[in-house]
Amino acid sequence: MNKKLDVRALAIMGLMTALLILFSFTPIGTIPIGPLSITLNVIPIAMAAIALGPMGGLAMGCVFGLLSFLQCVGVGVPSGMGVMLFSIDPFLAFIQRFVPRALDGLLVGALFRLFERKPGARPTCFLAGFFSAFLNTAFFMSALVLLFGNTEYVQGLMKGRSFLVFVCAFVGINAVVEMVACTVISGFVGVALYHAKLLPLDRRAERRTRACSSPSTSATPISPSAVSGRI
What is the pLDDT of residues 101-131, one digit of tens each? Predict the structure, then answer.
């Protein structure tokens, strides 16, 4: 059973990594909606967190962080902000790109495990999709201001505004639409995988629940002689 789970876990990790590479290095991971641009990179993180828990989400977040950092040096779809931050301080640019994505996957996996039994795994798939996008944006922008807030580049972006006002103005409606898209897509994909019996990989919680709800079959039957003796 463990070997089967390990093979399935490796298959899911491989598939999610391939999707992340495809989303990061091609325009497929970006959906233009009018002036908005919706990125799908956090969806594989949400799916890995749903399927494999905190460690799976952490691993996929690390992959996303590495791919994001490579965009700072022109690998894949280049990031103008990433290139600028890399020119200021390569090490801090790596931290700013890598750590928020790793924390995102870890916490989404932990939240999914926390709420998996109540309100249930299926609605929690939608919750995981939302938080994968929300936490990614929150951690990314927080790291940007914390590590580069004193630089001329970020000061020019903030224009004297407070952190909250800056974040709302910088990500704006784009982040809201992205959260909605990630919530819907991750939720429906997760539910579909549950119906296909591909999730959860760890069914110990389900087995414990069934064992508690099912009548015990190991009780020793009372013999008629024992009953008559008591009477």
Answer: 999 999 999 999 888 887 777 888 999 999 9
SS3 string, the chain, reads CHHHHHHHHHHHHHHHHHHHHHHHHCHHHEEEECCEEEECCHHHHHHHHHHHHHHHHHHHHHHHHHHHHHHHCCCCCCCHHHHHHHHHCHHHHHHHHHHHHHHHHHHHHHHHHHHCCCCCHHHHHHHHHHHHHHHHHHHHHHHHHHHHCCCHHHHHHHCCCCHHHHHHHHHHHHHHHHHHHHHHHHHHHHHHHHHCCCCCCCCHHHHHHHHHHCCCCCCCCCCHHHHHHHC
Confidence of residue 73 (pLDDT cuts 50, 70, 90): confident
- The pLDDT value recorded for residue 1 is 53
pTM to 2 decimals?
0.78
Sketch out the chain's domains with CATH numbers.
2-206 (1.10.1760.20)
Mean predicted confidence (pLDDT) in 34-53: 80
Burial category of 96 from C-beta neighbours within 10 Å (exposed 0-12, middle 13-18, buried 19 and up):
buried
